[in-house]
Input
Amino acid sequence: MSELKKDSVTPSIRVHVYPSSWTNGDVEVGAEFIGFGSMNLKYYSFDKQYWQPYEDSITVSKNRKIYFQAADSTGKVARKEYKVSNIDKVNPTISVKAGTTAWTNKNVKLTATFTDKQSGIEFKRYRLNGGDWKSYTGAISVSKNQEVYFEATDKAGNITTKTYEVKNIDKTKPTISIKAN
Output
């Protein structure tokens, strides 16, 4: 008489995500079902209500949870929940504040605030009148009327550019002309 072998393997599910770093694109989520013999049933769901057969990786276009579930022929079940949280499709924001907007004969100080609520700011830079880009590390002093460009790039690669026009500097000394009659 042959001896029956007991199935002692505990099944599990391992999730793979590509890319795993911040992205402004879609994410591919794949599952590896480990320890399942033949006749395994594999499913996934976004809401735990509607389950779909799992065949291959799933394309996810927004941050959300994915639930995986599988059963083997012996009735062993494994479940896995995975939260996709590395998608950022929202551009960062830039606000610029001038030290003064009233007419002045002095330089104007511009302070920019760079914000990104998801992945965070990776790069901040500025340039004057179409010149070379420079890293923004704090308020800048503008000595003449001109356009100042600010650019923010977040960790997912989204880019925002904002133009601020300084047009309140007048460093020309007044002149007086007198006419004799």
About this structure: The mean pLDDT is 92. The chain is about 0% helix and 45% strand. The CA atoms of residues 79 and 148 lie 54 Å apart. The radius of gyration is 30 Å.
